[in-house]
C-alpha cells in the first residue's frame, strides 16, 4: 500500500502529493517543522512538540494552520491511514503560496501544512548495541537555532561530513570560543570528568529539544543531579561518557568522537541508567514534567 500524506486539507498517496512551486517553504525555507515519535500508537511527548511548534511559529509571525485539537486529529488520521503504530511523524507549516518576494505577502495567504509518517524499527531492547561514533564540526548555522525552521543546509553539510567519516552525528561548536552547542540534529550531553551530567543551557544558539526536556523532567523526578551548563571541546574530550537525545535518538551513547574513545570507549553506567529511564518514559509517557 502506498504511504498516505496530508497536504493542505487532502489525504493523498505520497507519489501524488505535491506543493506549489511558489510555496515559501520551498523557495525561502520560510517554515517550521516537527518530528514526533509514535510508540505503540501513542505520540511520545506530543504536547512538548506542539508547544514548540506554536512557539517557533510565533517567533516568525506565522499562524497555526488550524486549532491544536484539529491538528491532533490530522496527526492521528495520518497514522491510522498508514497503519503505523511505531514510527516517525513529520509535520511542516510554511507561510503558504505567494508570488516570489522576500517580504511576507502583502495580503496574507493561508499557511500550508504537510504531514507524513514512516515506520521505524522498535525502540532498542539493549543499550550495548546502541552506541555510536560522532565527529566535531564548527557551528555555521544562523543566530536563531532555537527556532525549528526548515532551513537546515548547515546541518545537512555537518551530517554529511559525519557520514563520510563513519559517524552518526556531528557535534557542533562555536569556532570563536570552542564551546560545544549541540548535535547537528540532536541535543548533546556529557558526563564530565567529575561525574556530573551536563547539557548546554538554553538560549538562541540551540534548539530546545523535546527529548532533552523530557529527560530533564525524568531526572528531576528521579532525584538525579545534572547541570544545564555549557562545556568546551576540551571538557568534552575529558568526559567519562557522552550521549545524544532526540525524537529519533532517544538516549544514544556516543563512545567515540573524532576517532578517540569517550572514557573507556564503552557504554558507561550513567548512560546505561538514563537509557533505561527513558525507555520507561517512552512506554509510559511523561509524568510530572517541569
Structure overview:
Belongs to the class-IV pyridoxal-phosphate-dependent aminotransferase family. Keywords: Amino-acid biosynthesis, Aminotransferase, Branched-chain amino acid biosynthesis, Pyridoxal phosphate, Transferase. It is an enzyme of class 2 (transferase). One of its GO terms (biological process) is amino acid biosynthetic process. There is one protein chain. The protein is α+β, with helices and mostly antiparallel strands and 290 residues long. It folds into two domains: 116 residues, D-amino Acid Aminotransferase, Chain A, domain 1; 152 residues, D-amino Acid Aminotransferase, subunit A, domain 2 (D-amino Acid Aminotransferase, Chain A, domain 2). It is built from seven helices and 15 strands. The strands form two sheets. Strands 7, 8, 9, 10, 11, 12, 13, 14 and 15 form a nine-stranded mixed beta sheet that branches. Helix 5 crosses helix 7. The N and C termini lie far apart (41 Å).
Amino acid at each position: 500500500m502506498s504511504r498516505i500524506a496530508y497536504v493542505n486539507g487532502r489525504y493523498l498517496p505520497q507519489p501524488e502529493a505535491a506543493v506549489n512551486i511558489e510555496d515559501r517553504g520551498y523557495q525561502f525555507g520560510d517554515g517550521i517543522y516537527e518530528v514526533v515519535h509514535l510508540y505503540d500508537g501513542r505520540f511520545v511527548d506530543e504536547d512538548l512538540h506542539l508547544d514548540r511548534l506554536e512557539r517557533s511559529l510565533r517567533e516568525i509571525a506565522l499562524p497555526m494552520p488550524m486549532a491544536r485539537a484539529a491538528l491532533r486529529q490530522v496527526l492521528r488520521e495520518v497514522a491510522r491511514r498508514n497503519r503505523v503504530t511505531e514510527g516517525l511523524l513529520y509535520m511542516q507549516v510554511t507561510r503558504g503560496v505567494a508570488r516570489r518576494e522576500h517580504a511576507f505577502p502583502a495580503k496574507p495567504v493561508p499557511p500550508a501544512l504537510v504531514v507524513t509518517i514512516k515506520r521505524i524499527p522498535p525502540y532498542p531492547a539493549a543499550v550495548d548495541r546502541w552506541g555510536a561514533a560522532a565527529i566535531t564540526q564548527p557551528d555555521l548555522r544562523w543566530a536563531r537555532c532555537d527556532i525549528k525552521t526548515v532551513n537546515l543546509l548547515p546541518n545537512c553539510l555537518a551530517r554529511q561530513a559525519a557520514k563520510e567519516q563513519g559517524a552518526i552525528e556531528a557535534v557542533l561548536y562555536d569556532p570563536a570560543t570552542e564551546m560545544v552547542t549541540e548535535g547537528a540534529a540532536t541535543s548533546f550531553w556529557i558526563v564530565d570528568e567529575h561525574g556530573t551530567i551536563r547539557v548546554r543551557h538554553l538560549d538562541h544558539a540551540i534548539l530546545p529539544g523535546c527529548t532533552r526536556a523530557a529527560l530533564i523532567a525524568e531526572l528531576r523526578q528521579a532525584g538525579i543531579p545534572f547541570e544545564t551548563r555549557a562545556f568546551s571541546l576540551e571538557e568534552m574530550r575529558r568526559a567519562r561518557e557522552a550521549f545524544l537525545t532526540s525524537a529519533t535518538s532517544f538516549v544514544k551513547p556516543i563512545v567515540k568522537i573524532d576517532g578517540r574513545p569517550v572514557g573507556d570507549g564503552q557504554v558507561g553506567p550513567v548512560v546505561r541508567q538514563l537509557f533505561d529511564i527513558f525507555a520507561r518514559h517512552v512506554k509510559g509517557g511523561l509524568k510530572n514534567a517541569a
